[in-house]
Amino acid sequence: MTTIYQLMEGQWRMRVMVADDSLLFREGLARLLTERGFDVMGQAGDAAWLASLVRKDPPDVVVVDIRMPPTYTAEGLTVARELRAEHPGLGVLILSQYVETHYAAQLFEEVESCGGGGAGYLLKDRVTRLGDLESGVRRVGAGGLVLDPSVVDRLLRRRRTRDPLGELTDREREVLGLMAEGRTNTAIAKAMSVTVKTIEAHVRNIFDRLDLALTEDDNRRVLAVLAYLRR
Question: What residues bear 4-aspartylphosphate in this entry (predicted)?
Answer without folding.
Answer: 65
